[in-house]
Amino acid sequence: MEKFYISSAIAYTSAKPHIGNTYEIVLADSIARFRRLIGDDVYFQTGTDEHGIKIEEKAEAAGISPKEYVDNISGEIRKIWDLMNVSYDKFVRTTDKHHEEIVQKIFKKMYDKGDIYKGEYKGLYCTPCESFWTPSELVDGKCPDCGREVKEVSEEAYFFRLSKYQDRLIKYIDEHPDFIQPESRKNEMVNNFLKPGLKDLCVSRTSFDWGIPVTFDSKHVVYVWLDALTNYITNIGYDPDGSSDEFKKLWPCDLHLVGKDIVRFHSIYWPCFLWSLDLPLPKKIFGHPWLLMNNGKMSKSKGNVLYADDLTQKYGVDAIRYYLLHEIPYESDGNISEDLIVERINSDLANILGNLVQRTISMGFKYFDGHIENKNVLDDDSKNLINSINGLFDKVKSDMDTIHISDSLTDIFDLLRLSNKYIDLETPWVLAKDDKNKDKLETVLYNLLESIRVSGVLLEPFMPDTSKKILDELNISDKSFKFNDSNSYSLNEAKPLFMRINN
């Protein structure tokens, strides 16, 4: 049993997450569930990022305290994660007392080491992104990440010696080609940020109060990225004064899954912070693409935002999970609209999956009263189907190992398509007309049930409720990944898994 620690980025508590934000947590959940399915010892962490000037301003506008504000939004985020059937092991909050205490110790340790020093910051600041920029980094005079206005600020601040670790980081990325994935994100980090040269990083602020106080300089609060990134270690038992056995077991993290817009913080700032603490780096940082709506980035101001709770109420949780995981390619942005969701439900979930399960179980009852065993009467089409069943797991595992989640689902649905074609080739309704074909008919249905069973087992990471329904209808506990020629089926009545939607 291998340890597998996976994290999503912690969600910023400025507003209710839209479906684009929700994509990341479902993606992470599918990976965590798959690793559990194959027997790994999985730890899956997510949570909320709750400090910063943006929170302070939003709370003030709402007429409540920052803590009340983040309590509300964090609760809403957790509710949506739970709604989407996310199997996290820990939901962390950066306002948790333990996290705050360890962050203060981390800040002091870096300061004592000489990696943090006091200075003055003059620069261009984007409040929504909580990021400083130089004039050359702006795009048309605006924030390169979000396109909003920046403002010039000047204040006393503590700085982290990011420049000290630049050469070491370039060398590390060069020697560990899989550290940042996909390749396009790695190239962007190296060419746009590392090669031009790293500037020391502002890690404290005095212009607002909503943050973790610096213990030895009370007018300063720890700046958001040092606070937020360290959640990956503070919540598994890291302590500068002596870390727990859990930390020694879990760290380094196997996979940080983050949006492509924050790869820079995770692949540049975070490694340097860890080296400052004399800790090993995570094994992989994956920057996933965005989910666009009508090919544009979702934005409340544009009015082009969809929410998970609204969509699942209309279409069901697993239908939305399937859409998110299937429709967003490995590194290219995906697109969402309700028309596209309906199209995918009708074509894949109702026609291919639901139809196959319904037809097969119905025939099982019609011809054998729901009791089916393998009579092993094989022709070439049957052997082809069995070979495809036996090859499915290796394909899915290869795709999951390389985070090609969409391809994993395509592999499963290719087998389901083949199974539907197998029905047309074998024509069970014709076989049923002649008693001498009874053993072949039972074999055909058995082969179909095994295809559905293996597909159902492998669908669990992506569509957990649907997977359970399929295995319940098959009334079988076998969760092996290959064709089993000695199962015995006593089927339960089939209920429609997905209904076609008529617009």
How would you describe the overall organization of this protein?
By secondary structure, the protein is α/β, with parallel strands linked by helices. The protein has 18 helices and 17 strands.
Helix-strand layout with pairing:
Blueprint: E1 3-8, E2 11-12, H1 19-37, E3 41-49, H2 53-62, H3 66-83, E4 90-93, H4 97-113, E5 116-126, E6 131-133, E7 151-160, H5 166-175, E8 180-181, H6 183-194, E9 201-202, E10 204-205, E11 221-222, H7 224-229, H8 231-234, H9 245-250, E12 255-259, H10 263-276, E13 285-288, E14 291-293, H11 308-315, H12 317-327, E15 334-336, H13 338-368, E16 371-373, H14 380-401, H15 405-426, H16 428-431, H17 438-459, H18 464-474, E17 488-490
Brief rundown of the structure:
It contains 18 helices and 17 strands. The protein has 503 residues and is an alpha/beta fold. Strands 1, 2, 3, 4, 8, 12 and 13 form a seven-stranded parallel sheet that branches.
List keywords for this structure.
alpha/beta, seven-stranded parallel beta sheet, four-stranded antiparallel beta sheet, elongated
Mean model confidence by pLDDT: 94
CA-atom Rg in angstroms: 26 Å
Strands, total number: 17
SS summary, helix count: 18
The backbone outline, from C-alpha atoms, is: elongated
How far apart the termini lie comes to 48 Å
Largest sheet: 7 strands, parallel
Q: What structural class should be given to the helix and strand makeup?
A: alpha/beta
β-strand percent reads 5-15%
Q: Into which percent range does the helicity of residues fall?
A: 40-55%
**Which runs of at least 5 residues are low in confidence (pLDDT < 50)?**
none
